[in-house]
Amino acid sequence: MSDKERTERLKEQVSLLPDMPGVYRFLNDEGVVIYVGKAKNLKKRVSSYFVSRADHNNKVRALVRNIDSIMHTVVESEADALLLENNMIKSLRPKYNILLKDDKTYPWIAVTRDPYPRIIQTRRVEHGAATYFGPYASVSVQKNMLDLVRKLYMIRTCHLALTPEKVAAGKFDLCLEYHIGNCKAPCVGRISQQEYVESVRMAMQVLRGNLKEAEDYLIGLMNRESEALRFEEAAHIKDRLDRLENYRSKSVIVSATAGDMDVFYPIIDGYTAYCNYMHVVGGAIINSYTIEMKLAIEEELDTVLSFAIERICEKLSVTLSREVLVPVMPPEGEFAGHRFIVPVRGDKFKLLTLSERNCRLYRFERLKQMERTNPAKHTERLMETMKRELNLKKQPRVIECFDNSNLQGTYPVSSCVVFRDGRPSKKDYRHFNIKSVVGIDDFASMAETLTRRYGRMLEEGTPLPDLIVVDGGKGQLSSAYGVLRQLGIADKVEIVGLAKRLEEIFYPNDSTPLYLDKSGETLKVLMHIRDEAHRFGITFHRNKRSAGQIKSKLEDIPSIGKSSIEKLLKRFKSLKGIKEASQEEIFDTIGTARGRILINYLSEIK
User: Fold this and answer.
1) Distance (Å, rounded) from C-alpha 494 to C-alpha 392?
2) Lateral strand order in the sheet of 130-133
3) Is the terminal CB of the chain with fewer CB neighbours within 10 Å at N or C?
4) Maximum CA extent, the chain
5) In the Cβ-directed half-sphere of 589, how many Cα atoms lie within 13 Å?
6) What average pLDDT does range 104-122 have in this prediction?
7) Measuring CA to CA, which residue among 4, 11, 2, 19 is closest to residue 70?
8) Within its chain, how far is the Cα of 437 from the centroid?
9) Order of strands, edge to edge, in the sheet holding 33-39?
């Protein structure tokens, strides 16, 4: 492959990257990671390597020449990206990174297990010695958080070995921290051990990210200070509230509660499956990888998971950890000696959720790549997916959707929008003026529209659509299905109703709705055509209502009849267009005499 072809392929990969924070890896032609970087926006950051810039140094030019492929992992924030980058550099030791030679670990906050606990900063996690919170992306973030909880709850900062016996014996004296309002002086009994421990417990809630209790406490305190006219103190408390609201507690990238484990999250999409893998060592994610698998037949998720685990372990030459996080349990009897867990809360659940997110993004990027490089294959896959998920008899190559619009029963109209191969076919859009319905009756309006639409298609021998989508629930669907039965085509074309509130899909003669994956392609296509029908109908209704109002105004002008009004609207489209027209244009349209009357009338109204 030439350098030009390689560069074009890499630019294609870059174009599919998400605008999200994360970590990217550059691999050489042997599949070895040669560089790890973090980004606030993956697409912008990675694309900068492939833009010709004079300020690229020799190292960057050498790096770019050796890139064969790009991998990435999406995270929640830039701080998480920094932590994950740190982990991966230490684990993978890429050639073009500045290797981290020191043994420093991340900044943590520890709550000691003393009778009167202290809240301190540390870089060493010793399980059982304290309760740890973090890690934090930087020491400054750690210190700000430590300062916040200490000042919120006046936690002691001294190194005294406080015990109830020593406090009762009066072994200690008041210090400056008490006098300046930073400590409640548990050392001399100014606050009981029980009250002090409760303050520490509330501080730990803040460190865990449970901010509601602290917010309620501060708001109450601020209100009391304001009522007492101590506005300066109230302002200080308001500053603490603002800091609390801006605080983001902890990262799932490194966790004090997680040990060594693997995380797998599979997704099935027809006859293709994807699985994301994350390797966690000492509570830190050090690797992330996603694979795509082709299935010969439809498989259950547990079977796909089992196959994916074997495939990933073989491909990456890794040994499965003793503890494994998964969304479903693998088939019984497989992977003996390993403990599989389906977490529902806590750090392990967050790890599984992060794996799911990366798996879904990988699938999305692969599908977008297929759509660009092989549109026919993408369309075939999409149609087959919709057929399967909607339980249709054939692929919905042509879909029609209907929507009604009116304003308190006036100017009732219906719209028909057509999608071919999952995309709008605007040349086939149609709108209908409702003729037989008086007042507001959506069911009757829908019945009239479908009768006219498909009655004409039957008369003309036009092919019927593969699927009809009705905007509405069971009532709208029942009315529409009745029309198809009267026309004798209920067995020739399939129809569903799409209720907007919960995006429920209804079928004729079935009261139980179908719920599709909110992020799935099938529901997105149905929502797109429904929204497009609504937009098209509203636009037509607005134009008709506007034209009706213009006609009403023009009909008040003496000597200007319906024929003249139609000529004016046909040429100038709107009242504004008529006002802006020249005298010659108006005379040319409706004659000199009527034109003078019209111009005089328009000059008198705003």
Assistant:
1) 7
2) 119-122, 108-112, 130-133
3) C
4) 112
5) 23
6) 85
7) 11
8) 42
9) 33-39, 22-27, 69-74
How far the first Cα of the chain sits from its last, in Å, is 69
pTM to 2 decimal places: 0.63
H helix or E strand, kind and range, residue 22: strand 22-27
- The CA distance from 399 to 397, in Å, is 7
Residues 572, 250: Cα–Cα separation, whole Å: 63
H/E stretch holding 423 reads strand 423-424
Give me the half-sphere count of Cα atoms (radius 13 Å) on the Cβ side of residue 197.
10
Residue 152, H or E segment: helix 139-153
Contacts of 360 (CB under 8 A, 6+ apart): 267, 519
pLDDT in tens, 12-52: 888 888 899 999 999 988 888 999 988 889 999 998 888 76
The encoded tokens of residue 275 equal 């699985």
Q: What pLDDT score does 394 carry?
A: 92
Question: HSE of 199 in the Cβ direction (CA atoms, 13 Å)?
Answer: 22
Highest mean pLDDT among 19-23, 127-131, 507-511, 571-575: 19-23
Per residue in 53-99, pLDDT tens?
666 777 788 888 888 889 999 988 887 888 888 788 877 888 887 65
Buried (b) or exposed (e) across 461-477, using 16+ Cβ within 10 A? eeeebbbbbbbbbbebb
